[in-house]
Design a protein that fits this description.
Helices cover 0% and strands 58% of the residues. The chain has 119 residues and is mostly beta strands. The relative contact order is 0.32. The model has no long low-confidence stretch (mean pLDDT 95).
């Protein structure tokens, strides 16, 4: 079976930085798109950033220039480097991964990691 494990969340002051990670384990043949979503308390989940197998990236406008998504194929891990954090970045951050097992492509979500930006 496949499992996504997130880490790196926490409490940071405005203007600070955090890096969240998401590692995939299990029987995986290949990994396609990897992405980060976030869900502020009481609000809808939104896409923050995504990266495909060719390392093409996409960011929501509100994080452009501040966040960087990257992936390490050998470690089966996707990262989100978050700089110049703002209180409005506070949310639970979820890892999203599409992968192939056998003949099928499947979608998985991480358990979520809390990022709180506050003084």
């Amino acid at each position: 079976q496949v499992q996504l494990v997130e880490s790196g969340g926490g409490l940071v002051q405005p203007g600070g930085s955090l890096r969240v990670s998401c590692a995939a384990s299990g029987s995986i043949w290949s990994i396609g798109v990897m992405a980060w979503y976030r869900q502020p308390s009481g609000k809808q989940r939104e896409l923050v950033a995504r990266i495909d197998s060719g390392s093409n990236t996409l960011y929501v406008d509100s994080v452009k220039g501040r966040f960087t998504i990257s992936r390490d194929s050998a470690k089966r891990t996707v990262y989100l480097q978050m700089n110049s954090l703002k209180p409005e970045d506070t949310a639970v951050y979820y890892c999203y991964v599409t992968l192939r097992r056998g003949a099928t492509w499947e979608t998985y979500w991480g358990q979520g990691t809390q990022v709180t930006v506050s003084s």
